[in-house]
Each structure stands twice: as structure tokens, then as C-alpha cells.
Amino acid sequence: MAVHHIAVLALDGVTPLDLAIPAQIFTARRETPYEMTLCGLNAKVATNAGFTLEVSGGLERVREADTVIVPGFEPILDLPDPVLGTLAEARDRGRRVVSICTGAFALAAAGVLDGLHATTHWQHLDEFERDFPAVTVDRDVLYVDEGDVLTSAGVCCGIDLCLHIVRRDLGAEVANQIARGLVAAPHRDGGQAQYVPAPVAAAGDASLSQTREWALHRLGEPLTLPVLARHASLSQRTFMRRFAEETGTTPLQWLLNARLGRARELLETTDHSVDQVARDCGLGTAANLRLHFRRVLDTTPTAYRRAFSQS
């Protein structure tokens, strides 16, 4: 695989966790082509946690990169012209430009997001929308993929976005391998709500994670809402409410996304027919699988296999 150069641009006030996400996901691995460099305007960058970082690359390294990632930072102040110019140049040259959390403020200030949809941390959405009227703000998503420009919501949503990028580049199997190494969920669709009102189960309530795990091992079976609710020992109404509180999506949408993820892995790693893949992942028929691939991924199972097959 050709080397894909990634520059992670740490701005003063960078959030260490936001910075660690791309550093961990895009670190060099045998199965990936990524070469990552931590960059900054100066050799030392102050974090918002009270310590400083030494970076190995400057803005010239950012200009050479195939993908530029800007982690979140605070306070959100006016940025130096060289930084804004470098980000604008990356966009003009067709490079992939990505932000995590409040890193979107840097992309917007550079004009990279003008005319596009974008998101950022839910606590800063009003400020972002006010300061950058040329950007269409998506408030209830984990991340936004506009092709070569991608933005994520707060902190951990950066994991979802970076895994999404790996999935786009290298397929679901490689992305899931990395996710397992991180002990992270293998895929949360970008359309899920970024701010879940009750992300932690209330005292005395049991999380539905066991039911979700149970379902992931039975995707080829007829998993209906009554079946899922019965496994969780809840009424259907309570199950739907609790599921949405924990995941920000509905049980059936979550199940469809899981089945598409499984189909992608099977297409990459087996020579099973499209009909067999459709049955094994629970989508029934090849026609139904093609319908969902076209609707969600804008491709066909056969074309996807040609692009990502490991055989």
C-alpha cells in the first residue's frame, strides 16, 4: 500500500484526549499505510491540561500531508494567519481535512467549511453557528462526512470519525481490528445523536449493552423488536425508550447498521456469494442487501468487494 501521510495539527490549548485519538488510531500498523506526524506552529505546544507537548513537524509538514487533522482546542481564540493559510491551502489542493470537537472552529475560520455541513461539540454549537453563518450546522450527529472535509462532535465522537475514515480507506475488517484493540465500539453511525440525555444507566437500571452484544452474535437470525425486548426482560415501549437514551438511535436502525457492518466484513474476508452474505448478516436477499448498500454506502456489494477484498 502506498504511504498515506497524516498530519495532526496541535494548536495552543489543544485537548490531550482529542489529540490522542488520531495519534492512536493512525499510528503505524502492518495492515495500514498511515504515517502520522504530530505538527504545530512552534516546536512546543501548550495543552489545556497545563502541560506542554513537543511536536516533530511544522506547518511545512502539514502542507505535505494527504490528510490534515485538527484536534479540539481551547480557549477558542483568533488563530495566527499562517495556520489559517495552511488549512485553506490544504483544502484548495484537494487534501482531506478533518476536525475533532472544537477543531471545527479552526477549519471554519480558514474558510474550509464554507457552504458545507459541519458539527462540533454540543456545548459550542450556538457559538459556532453565530460566528460562521456560511456553515450549515448539524446539531444532532456524531460526525459529518462531506467527502474530503469531515468534522466530529465532542471528544469521543472523534473515535467514531477516525474509525469511519479507516473504514472508508481500508474497509470494515481493518477498522474493526483497530476498534477491538482500543476496546471501542466497532461502529457508531454518524447520524446518531451526539448528546444522549442519559448516557449512563440510572441507579438500579441495567444497561442494554448485554442485549446489544447478544444481538451482534445473532445477526443472521430474525431479530425483531419483541425478541430484543424479551431478551432485555422489558416491555417494548420501555426497551425502545431505554435504547434511545443509551445509543441515540432506534433499535431497528442500530440493527440495520450492525448488519451492514457485518455484510462489509463478509464481503472483504470471504468468497461467499452476495446471496449468502445477505442471509448471514440478516438482510435476507441479495436484492435487499443491494438496496441498503446503494442507499447507505452509494455502491453495490460487488463493487465494495472489488475495492476491499482481502483474498
Automatic annotation (TrEMBL):
Q: Which InterPro entries match?
A: Class_I_gatase-like, DJ-1/PfpI, Homeodomain-like_sf, HTH_AraC, HTH_AraC-typ_CS, INH-QAR
Superkingdom of source: Bacteria
What Pfam families does this protein's entry cite?
A: DJ-1_PfpI, HTH_18
Tell me if Transcription is a UniProt keyword of this record. yes
Q: Which Gene3D superfamilies match?
A: 3.40.50.880, Homeodomain-like
Record keywords: Ion transport included? no
The residues forming a coiled coil are none
Q: Write down what this protein is called.
A: Helix-turn-helix domain-containing protein
